[in-house]
Design a protein that fits this description.
The structure holds 2 protein chains of 2 kinds. Chain A has 23 helices and 19 strands. In chain A, strands 2, 3, 4, 5 and 10 form a 5-stranded mixed β-sheet that branches. A 5-stranded antiparallel β-sheet of chain A has the order 12-11-19-18-17, with helices on both faces. By secondary structure, chain A is an alpha+beta fold. Chain A starts with 7 loop residues before the first helix and ends with a helix. The longest helix of chain A has about 30 residues. A 3-stranded antiparallel β-sheet of chain B has the order 1-2-3, with helices on one face. In chain B, about 70% of the residues lie in helices and about 5% in strands. In chain B, α11 crosses α13, α13 runs antiparallel to α14 and α13 runs parallel beside α15. The chains are: A alpha+beta, B mainly alpha. Chains A and B meet through α1 and α2 of A and α8, α11, α13 and α14 of B.
Chain lengths: ~625, ~375
């Protein structure tokens, strides 16, 4: 370091630097003054024009077709009223303005604003869908006073045939805060309309398109000056279902006012042709954001119209269970086709008298006759020999007790009892007498119609096709039951049961109601008690009528190389032969009339289908 | 020479330090206001973290005698130069410039730190010369010291940062003393080189310069940025729209709101009065830095402080001038206010150098 430094000149020059700094800062001050004060009006005006609005461009969902290309679920555009909360100056004034001109209550308005509390402030709230002409005129005339509202054309769901196939199609609704946390909805945001039920829900990701947006510059009155950015929405992918709407409509019409369900599928491919559940609901009610009141009404309806009875409800299988018992008996070698039982109308077992449905009894019956006439006594004795464990084993082999894995959510598992189950749930041991009731499908055995239909399908073909609603690349609706059943039953045993089932319909058995002249229908009826016999005796005639039994018919056709499997349950429908079998017959009849000229139901040509478009 | 000394805070320039800290916190406020639309406060939190790191670095740099730092300036300079060369091969590219070092999720720009090593080396060289009128050969060495990192940074694709080395050199050379003919010569050469360099500029860089002279050119394109920032500032008026109410910035009209255009978002919200207060804080810092230079013990101290003052002054003048629309848009941050770890830490370290000089202004025998 130098010993002496003369830094006086440097200090002088530092002073220049100081002056230079101050002069430059004065320039900055001047420009700042010029912008913010002198030209304030000019810039404020420009800033006013700089308001932007992001107009959501909702992507229409994909369409849903039936197997013949008929549109079951479509979109329509309607005018919706949107509120931009970031431009809201006086909430009460705005609400008053809306109530004056729109058919909407303050309660609903507040409900909607509250629901929108979780969205970004810049995301508009849909106040009312599908505005009427009068409402639109009212809003347009006053828009300059209320720049915070905007009318926008947006798509919404329309279910072309109302309640037809409502449980399959499902419905859509605004995503709930809980759903936003679910991984399947990770691409959705608050306020989005998503599938909530049916295939709308299962295939939501496929059906959902990509929303676009339009960023526009608006003036202080909300008028659009020009577009800044336009991203077009992309419609979701279409779905083609395996349903046949002609068959579906027939099934639903025949069920009519009865509560019940019909399921039919192609025995070879597992494609569901009919999935009918009554009573139904109109999914169009949900397409416009449903109010809490309407929702509660549907939920509290004692007939539970929102439940898909084919997969969500469980029932006692009643006498239809006898075919499962018969297969178990044959497979285990306890009986053969020649084994006979003499039915005297009742049998005493374990200190209890078990009745056959026919007073006086069926006399001496072999297996075929026992199935044909649904003789209880035969199966009481067979059940006693098989025991609970074997019965449960074969029930599970035929797919009972686990969901079938259809591509719908919320499938019930049903119930196949066991000794452990009885101990755990009821806290009692399994009584031998219960096995006797179980043998005729009563007691603690519960099935969904789709489970029972699949069991019949396995008996009909010896194979277990994966049941599904989507043509082509379907996905599993439920993780349970994902393992495909691989039944391994002796073909001659299956043939014995098939023949017996054919005689049920065609040789004066209980299922004559399903008989067709030109189509070999095989089936089994069932009448499941909804209350126990002892309770029944305490009830009056009128009460009995109200609590009539559930009527079942399960079957397939034709007897050789089966094409279609049908299961019908009519709740409080009396006996299976009288109310369920005729419905099944109509399904078989229509299926045969429609498909006899074609190959397997999965292979028909689309042009042929179009010609037969009638409903 | 003692590297560590007692009584660090007995000779501490509180005005300078507090002024800088207030500005940094105002910057954090601006960044916070720029965030709520997305609800993502990570920029704000990270900026607060960088400020604390900066303060720590500032105090650390202050505590080591600047003579020690100046004596090792060549070492620091060489290390940084090697780092800059290394980045050309191993750096991370962010926003089109390959000037980032990334480790453990933290990105850092050594080009910012290079400014400090250049200040130190220039001060050390000029201090040794003890010469009031620099000769051409001296100037050639000074220019080489400055141009070497500039060229490396330009290759990295960050012309804005590279250009900021020139005013540092000019400020220090002018204060150190230079023959009038030499100064005139450099100006003449610069004026001749400028039109030639035009051909080396990228198209977008040319556009930016043209737009400053004629904002009507392409109002939706490049001029858009500076025009939107002027609208934001102008519409703020005398008192501003209030904190968090800056619609222009929040609705995405002002670009790069938390980095290069942070002044615009603050000006829109706090108006002329608030903006003047911010500029006055910068002026306070600059006046303190010149004062520190004036009271420095020796030539090296004078020149270090001058270099720091030049660094901060030109960044502020060019960045604010850009947001006000009187300087072409150059992508440089506003010291202390802008989001950015490297820049924030570098400015605090630079202030640490000045505090260092101030603290050791008396000669003890």
């Amino acid at each position: 370091m130098p010993i002496f430094q003369d830094n006086r000149e440097l200090l002088q020059r530092l002073n220049w630097l100081r002056i230079f700094f101050v002069l430059v800062f004065i320039c900055l001050f001047a420009q700042l003054w010029s912008l913010t004060v002198l030209d304030f009006d000019y810039y404020q005006n420009l800033a006013e024009q700089n308001r932007v609005r992001i107009l959501p461009q909702i992507a229409p969902r994909g369409l849903i077709h039936d197997r013949e290309g008929r549109v079951l679920v479509d979109n329509v555009y309607g005018f919706n009223l949107l509120l931009f909360r970031d431009e809201l100056s006086d909430l009460d004034a705005t609400l008053q303005f809306l109530m004056d001109g729109l058919d909407i209550s303050e309660e609903v308005l507040r409900e909607r604003l509250k629901a929108a509390g979780s969205y970004s402030i810049y995301q508009p709230v849909v106040i009312k869908e599908n505005l009427s002409m009068e409402e639109t005129a009212y809003l347009l005339a006053r828009q300059s006073e209320h720049p915070e509202v905007e009318i926008l054309k947006q798509p919404r769901r329309i279910y072309r045939y109302g309640s037809l196939a409502a449980h399959v199609a499902g419905y859509v609704g605004e995503i709930s805060p809980a759903q936003l946390q679910e991984p399947v909805f990770r691409e959705s945001k608050a306020g989005d309309i998503v599938g909530q039920f049916g295939v709308e829900r299962t295939y939501n990701q496929t059906l959902t398109g990509r929303d676009g947006r339009r960023r526009v510059q608006v003036d202080s009155r909300g008028r659009i000056l020009h577009d800044l950015e336009q991203i077009d929405p992309i419609r979701g992918e279409d779905l083609t279902l395996t349903l046949d709407l002609d068959l579906q409509a027939t099934a639903e019409n025949l069920l009519g006012e009865n509560a019940g369900a019909v399921i039919a599928f192609d025995a070879r491919s597992g494609e569901i042709l009919v999935m009918a559940s009554r009573p139904a609901f109109d999914p169009n009610q949900f397409a416009i954001r449903i109010s809490k009141k309407e929702w509660d009404q549907l939920l509290e309806n004692p007939d539970h119209p929102l439940q898909n009875r084919t997969v969500q409800n469980t029932f006692s299988p009643g006498s239809t269970f006898k075919i499962i018992l018969a297969l178990a008996g044959l497979e285990r070698g306890i009986i053969d086709t020649e084994t006979t039982v003499t039915c005297n109308g009742s049998v005493d077992l374990y200190g209890h008298r078990f009745h056959c449905w026919k007073e006086g009894g069926h006399g001496e019956v072999n297996l075929r006759e026992a199935i044909q006439h649904s003789c209880n006594t035969y199966f009481y004795l067979l059940g006693q020999k098989l025991g609970l464990q074997e019965i449960a084993h074969f029930a599970r082999q035929l797919g009972l007790g686990v969901p079938v894995g259809i591509d719908l959510l919320g499938e019930a598992s049903g119930l196949v009892p066991s000794e452990e189950w009885k101990r755990q749930v009821r806290g009692e041991p399994w009584y031998p007498g219960e096995t006797i009731s179980l043998a005729i499908g009563q007691g603690p055995i519960l099935v969904t119609p789709i489970q029972l239909a699949r069991a019949v399908g396995i008996i009909a073909t010896g194979r277990s096709p994966r049941l599904h609603l989507l043509k082509g690349d379907f996905q599993q609706g439920s993780t349970a039951g994902r393992e495909l059943l691989s039944p391994a039953f002796a073909p001659e045993n299956l043939q014995t049961i098939r023949d017996a089932m054919w005689s049920v319909v065609n040789e004066g058995g209980t299922g004559q109601g399903a008989r067709l002249a030109d189509y070999q229908v095989a089936g089994k009826t069932g009448t499941a008690q909804t209350i126990s016999l002892s309770t029944r005796e305490e009830l009056s005639e009128s009460e009995l009528e109200r609590l009539e039994d559930n009527a079942w018919f399960v079957g397939f056709a034709p007897r050789d190389n089966p094409e279609i499997v049908v299961a019908v349950i009519v709740q409080r429908g009396g006996s299976g032969g009288s109310s369920a079998a005729p419905i099944a017959r109509e399904i078989f009849r229509l299926y045969h009339a429609k498909y006899k000229s074609r190959g397997p139901a999965g292979l028909e040509v689309a042009s042929q289908a179009k010609q037969e478009k009638k409903l | 020479m003692k590297v560590w000394e007692r009584g660090i805070f007995t000779q501490f320039d509180y005005a300078l330090f507090m002024g800088a800290l207030i500005l940094a916190l105002l910057g954090a406020l601006g960044i916070y206001n720029a965030s709520p639309q997305s609800g993502d406060y990570s920029f704000f939190l990270r900026h607060l973290l960088w400020i604390s790191v900066g303060v720590g670095v500032c105090l650390f740099v202050m505590s080591i005698d600047y003579h020690f730092l100046a004596d090792h300036a060549l070492l620091f300079y060489t290390l940084l130069a090697l780092l800059l060369i290394g980045i050309l091969f191993f750096g991370t590219e962010i926003n089109g410039s390959r000037s980032w070092l990334t480790f453990g999720g933290v990105s850092f720009q050594p080009s910012e730190l290079a400014k400090l090593t250049v200040i130190l080396l220039l001060a050390q060289y000029l201090g040794q010369l003890n010469e009031n009128h620099l000769e051409y050969r001296h100037f050639l060495i000074l220019a080489s010291i400055t141009l070497f990192p500039m060229i490396l940074i330009t290759i990295q694709g960050d012309l804005g940062t590279a250009l900021m080395f020139l005013p540092i050199l000019m400020g220090m050379v002018v204060v150190a003393g230079v023959k009038k003919q030499l100064l005139a010569g450099v100006l003449v050469v610069s004026l001749c080189v400028a039109p030639v360099s035009w051909f080396f500029l990228q198209d977008y860089q040319k556009q930016r310069i043209l737009v400053t002279f004629d904002p009507g050119l392409d109002p939706q394109g490049i001029g858009y940025q500076s025009r939107q920032s002027q609208i934001a500032i102008g519409s703020g008026g005398l008192f501003g729209k209030g904190l968090g109410q800056g619609l222009q910035s929040q609705l995405g009209f002002v670009p790069e709101i938390h980095t290069d255009f942070i002044f615009a978002i603050l000006a829109e919200e706090i108006g002329f009065v608030g903006s003047i207060l911010i500029l006055m804080l910068y002026l306070l810092i600059l006046m303190r830095l010149i004062r520190i230079a004036e009271t420095a013990r020796d030539r090296v101290g004078i020149l270090i402080s001058t270099g720091v003052a030049s660094l901060i002054f030109f960044h502020v003048a060019i960045n604010v001038g850009m947001t006000l629309g009187i300087v072409p848009p150059i992508g440089i941050p506003l010291p202390l206010l802008s989001y950015g770890g490297s820049a924030t830490v570098t400015v605090f370290a630079a202030l640490g150098l000045a505090l260092n000089v101030y603290q050791r202004r008396f000669v003890y025998y």
